[in-house]
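Throughout this chapter, every protein is written as a compact record of paired, labelled lines. An example of such a record is reproduced below:
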Amino acid sequence: MRIGTLALGGMTLPGILQARAQANNETAETSVILFWMWGGPSHLETYDLKPDAPGEYRGPFQPIATNVPGFDICEHMPLQAKIADKFSVIRSLHHEMSAHNDGSIEVLTGKTPPPDPTSQARSLHPDFGMIAARVRGSRADGLPQYVGVQKAPFMTLPQYLGVSHKAFETGDPSAAGFAAPNLQLAAGVDEGRLVERKSLIAQLDRYRRGLDLGGSLDGVDRFRGAAFDILTSTRVAKAFDLELESPQLRDRYGRHRWGQSCLLARRLAEAGTAVINIDATATTNRSPHFSWDDHAGAFDLGVANRERLPQLDQALSALIEDIFARGLDRKILVIACGEFGRTPRISRAATNFLGAPSIGRDHWPQAYCAMISGGGLRMGTVVGATNSKGEFPAQAPLTPQDMLATVYQHLGIRPDQTFSDHGGRPISILPHGAPIRQLL
């Protein structure tokens, strides 16, 4: 990044920081980590197995007991089974959006989009990470308030909040020589030259301020100073530096994409980032299973999840244990979910993308799960239940808005707060929903 020349929609970096800081408040530094399984993970192969359902519904995996009596999860998640007292599962989430982008927008923004069967929709409202970035405002140390580990959800847009509230994207933390982009000085610009440029800019600003009769330049130095802090703050650099962790801990998380993503997310949350969204789609660039979209004609349900679930299990169990061991379980809230579940009835295809016969499940927003840990909430609990085939909520039906209300409560954000859209109309953060009482 070059101070004063980074343009995003015509805005310079100091301008972006100024926009972020307009809504700054005294909210405590609580954080949310979302392990975002875009594509729609099957609830019937993860946290809501139905071993007694008819054969055309029953999946290829068996449930195993956890350390909480009566709380079973998939056999390919044995590490989580040992620490189920440190997380809860919501089994009764549901909504009506059956396309990927529509469902994602519903879950991430709390606003129901106009249905788009092509799944090319983009949100008309900001997601909860963008909201948090706006409400929290810019940090003095330059640490981003909203980070997309690897990348941020592509279907949500900041819209009327402004481009400055988009997530900062990190790239793949498991890549060799990983370093977050744009957090280092441009090649050939050392700190001495940066200080000289800062001094020159200050002199020009003093001259401009002498001509500014309306006071519109008040505070420019403060925001430009924050821009320089992004480039020079050791706190920001350390938050992104995985090499500061012991090799043993990095091994425990897993030296794969999801493991190192979870470790980076913990470091960022510990440092004070408000929302960290982990892109948990493909386990590697080489994996044929590029999302959780397990249609029979795409991926074999059993093969794909035998690849994914062990890495998910290692990464999430390490993250949860690490957070509790560090005493961060009240500060940090972890959620793992996707935009919907999968059809209870299994489908079959003669060939999939790999040219092999396969079984799969299609889109199913009528029932899906979320794993939730920390946040000072009640752990070791199963909230809600689906019917015997996993088709619909049978107990305590909950919506994405209820889950977001829980998130906003943790972040100290009032859901009834409003922002003005481009037409000047007030738009509430969350139209409806209440914090999930079974977790409080």
Observations:
- The chain has one domain: 30-183+235-439.
- The radius of gyration is 23 Å.
- The domain at 30-183+235-439 is CATH 3.40.720 (Alkaline Phosphatase, subunit A).
